[in-house]
Design a protein that fits this description.
The complex is a heterodimer of chains A (334) and B (402).
Chain A: H1 2-7, H2 11-30, H3 33-57, H4 65-83, H5 87-104, H6 106-109, H7 113-133, E1 150-151, E2 154-155, H8 159-182, H9 184-194, H10 196-201, H11 206-232, H12 242-255, H13 263-276, H14 284-298, H15 302-322
Chain B: H1 3-29, E1 42-49, H2 56-75, E2 83-90, H3 95-108, E3 114-115, H4 120-133, E4 137-139, E5 155-157, H5 162-176, E6 181-187, H6 190-206, E7 210-217, H7 226-230, E8 239-242, H8 246-258, E9 264-267, H9 274-280, E10 288-291, H10 306-319, H11 325-344, H12 349-357, E11 362-364, E12 367-371, E13 377-378, E14 381-386, E15 392-398
Parallel strand pairs in B: 1-2, 1-3, 3-4, 4-5, 6-7, 6-8, 8-9, 9-10
Antiparallel strand pairs in B: 10-14, 11-12, 12-13, 14-15
Helix pairs in contact in B: 2-11, 3-4, 5-6, 8-9, 11-12
Classes of the chains: A mainly alpha (334), B alpha/beta (402).
Chain lengths: 334, 402
């Protein structure tokens, strides 16, 4: 199938998507909050995908993803309020502005490792200050009265409708990053991460690649921001602080830093922990720390790393057992 | 790719399409229905607030008092024959998490009313949700002035608006302390900024004093205020008004005394919390702050109403410690909501709202409370001063003008 070839999706991924798409049908009659919650998870997956491309694939320790998220949300909201443009256009504006802000970061892309991390941390803090201080952002009180999202006359306010729109967009963003990770661009990026001088020696421009991946990651965060702004109708600077960046970082790390599919299980687990352990009250922090520590000890490559490990073992066993030419285990009845 | 898998994927896609259209149709029909039901003899009430994170102490105090009020009400037979159960949600200091929690409380737990949030930006973020669902929200600690000025009908305060904080402090500074040069230092979040702005407006409006400086900082991350403070070393102001939270206030006071700046500190309600004295130490002694609850002060009996004395004595007997403003506000907020349920004899949002608006002579742990039409409350304010051992002394009582 053309679509499958285009995004390199294995067979089971379609079954997975089908299950995700079926989920709200069940949730709708059981507990409608689950749909809202699932939508939030999808938005965090979108954020995680962008950060995974920057942090995981390009190896740049970026600590300002919430800033891109916020820039997308604010620019899309302001354009929506000022010019009353329809939602898809404001979303495009959000993506472009966030991508442009990624372009602003190009000068600091030359920095390496901890210096880059520090600069992005500062960038994240500066963006929050700007949101609070600029005359047109509504300041610390936040920005209200953002027009509600609607596409071709269908209002997205209903959680169910919004869920499917976000699902389609997340799959599109995933498809983009998945495509990029397997073509020449992704391979070059891998080469730069693993050995920069060697990559340069075969004609790869590291900074050009890094800039591009930053812009794409920032743009996808901008889309997430635009979605959040137009469905909530209210945003304030406290939603986009450095804490939020660290939470997104947690999603990527728990899911598996080097795996493009990592943000899916990562966001699922992190969101479930934060929402469904509230009965534990203040002891939740203990559980949180324990889970992170255990995941570091038992599956340092993240949840998706664990899955691929199990998958590989099964595949190897399958290969060995069915191989005609070489049988390590004697199956004869001796 | 095998023929089989191709068929499977095609079927999958068709299924997805089918269910999506089905879902669109369902969405129109079943808005607001659900299979979950609440037992008839139980009254669930939502509670939101950060009980972890940097403001955890405040949240835990409010929760303790809420639990106490609910326990008392349940022992007395519940509300209209129904036992009360509180559903908790930890919102940290994250407005997005607060929105998700509010949606969960309303859609999943189907609560008829919510107590919370005490952090102003969190409360701000959920106003629209409770308004749409017609679920009354009563906050035990969000003082941010703008909350009740946006025209929403389902927001109520169990605490007083920070406007009163700033106006009473401003009046005391200008009239009683005769201050002429004043500096404002406060957090740049919506709470700190609204208090600081209201104070600045009052002082400028009075024409009797001058605002020499207005410095803001990010209260979660700023730990070193020396640079801000050194500006005023050569010519210290009469008063530094703290419009931030407890921890940052403590650090400012401490660092100001260490830098050798001699001035009088005037604070808002946040500085009456124990963290201020714990962090600031001896430097904070002499600080004057505004509050509406004086149970922790040594001479409170001279100023307090009988209901305050009763609450304080019962609290000390039960918990073996001094009550705080958070406790009093948590207790009052819960009881005001329960009283509204009692008067409304129903859990209907509209009726509970009207009952809350009708509270005009409510005897609370802080004194007599009058509910104003926009959801704010009017309660007597006090100026208290920090003594040597971390205890407080009441200086004056002021009734704020509306």
């Amino acid at each position: 199938m053309a679509l499958r070839k285009l995004i390199h999706a294995p067979r089971w991924s379609f079954i997975f998507v089908a299950l995700v798409a079926l989920f709200p049908i069940w949730a709708n009659s059981y507990d409608r909050f689950l749909i809202v919650f699932a939508t939030n998870i999808l938005i965090y997956i979108m954020l995680g995908l962008g950060l995974q491309a920057i942090f995981g694939s390009a190896g740049m320790v970026e600590l300002c993803h919430a800033a891109f998220f916020g820039i997308g949300a604010y620019s899309s909201a302001l354009i929506g309020i000022k010019w009353r443009l329809p939602f898809p256009l404001t979303a495009v504006a959000g993506i472009l502005t966030a991508g442009l802000s990624g372009l602003i970061m190009v000068p600091i892309i030359r920095l390496r490792e901890v210096y880059y991390a520090m600069s992005t941390f500062a960038f994240g803090a500066i963006v929050v200050v700007l949101m609070k201080e600029l005359p047109f952002t509504g300041g610390v009180n936040g920005l209200g009265g953002i027009p509600k999202a609607s596409i071709a006359g269908i209002r997205l306010e209903d959680p169910l409708v919004f869920f499917y729109i976000v699902l389609i967009l997340v799959i599109a963003v995933y498809g983009l990053f998945s495509k990029l990770s397997t073509n020449l661009f992704g391979m070059s990026l891998n080469a730069v991460r693993q050995n920069e001088p060697a990559a340069e020696s075969v004609g790869i421009y590291p900074n050009r690649l890094r800039s591009l991946v930053t812009i794409l990651g920032a743009g996808s965060a901008g889309l997430a921001g635009s979605l959040v702004a137009h469905i909530q109708g209210f945003i304030n600077p406290d939603m986009f602080t450095v804490d939020k960046s660290l939470f997104i970082l947690g999603i990527v790390v728990v899911g598996g830093l080097r795996y493009i599919r990592g943000p899916w299980p990562g966001a699922l687990v992190m969101m479930f922990i934060s929402e469904y352990t509230r009965e534990l009250k203040e002891y939740i922090q203990l559980v949180y720390g324990l889970i992170l520590a255990l995941s570091m000890i038992f599956f340092p490559k993240g949840l998706w790393g664990l899955v691929t490990l199990l998958w590989k073992q099964k595949a190897i066993r399958h290969y060995l057992e069915n191989s005609e030419t070489w049988k390590p285990y004697s199956k004869s009845k001796t | 790719m095998g023929e089989m898998s191709r068929k499977l994927s095609a079927m999958g896609m068709v299924l997805i399409m089918f269910f999506m259209f089905d879902a669109f149709a369902l969405a129109k029909k079943s808005h607001g229905q659900g299979a979950k039901s609440v037992p008839a003899n139980e009254l669930k009430i939502g509670w939101m607030g950060g009980i972890t994170g940097i403001l955890a102490e405040l949240g835990l105090n409010v929760r303790e008092a809420t639990d106490w009020a609910v326990e008392e009400a349940n022992q007395a037979g519940g509300i209209n024959g129904r036992q009360i159960r509180i559903v908790y949600a930890d919102t940290k200091i994250d407005p997005q998490l607060a929105r998700q929690s509010a949606e969960r409380l309303i859609m999943s737990d189907r609560v008829p009313a919510i107590i919370g949030d005490y952090y102003t930006p969190n409360t701000d973020a959920i106003l629209e949700i409770v308004e749409k669902a017609k679920v009354p929200l009563i906050t035990p600690g969000s003082g941010g002035i703008m909350l009740t000025q946006k025209g929403y009908k389902y927001i109520f305060r169990g605490c007083y608006s920070s406007e009163f904080d700033a106006l009473v402090a401003g009046r005391y500074a200008v009239e009683n302390m005769k201050a002429r040069r004043i500096v404002i230092m406060g957090a740049s979040d919506s709470f700190g900024r609204s208090v600081g702005d209201a104070f600045e407006k009052y002082v400028k409006g009075s024409g009797k004093a001058e605002i020499v400086g207005y410095d803001t900082y990010d209260f979660a991350t700023t730990k070193d205020f020396t640079n801000l403070l050194l500006k005023y070393k050569a010519n210290p102001p009469d008063i530094i008004y703290l419009s931030g939270a407890q921890a940052d206030g403590g650090l400012i006071t401490k660092q100001a005394v260490e830098a050798g700046i001699k001035t009088q500190f005037l604070g808002n309600l946040a500085q009456t919390k124990s963290a201020y004295y714990k962090i600031g130490g001896k430097a904070t002694v002499g600080t004057i702050a505004t509050t509406s609850f004086i149970g922790m002060a040594e001479n409170y009996r001279d100023f307090a109403e009988p209901s305050t004395v009763k609450f304080t004595e019962a609290f000390v007997k039960r918990y073996q410690k001094a009550p705080t403003l958070d406790h009093a506000q948590g207790y009052d907020t819960t009881n005001m909501l329960l009283e509204a349920f009692r008067i409304a004899k129903s859990t209907d949002g509209e009726k509970v709202r009207e009952a809350l608006l009708g509270l005009s002579d409510y005897k609370s742990a802080r004194g007599t409370i009058k509910m104003l039409p926009n959801g704010d409350i009017l309660v007597k304010m006090f100026l208290i001063q920090l003594m040597d051992d971390g205890k407080w002394k009441v200086l004056a009582a002021i009734m704020p003008k509306v």
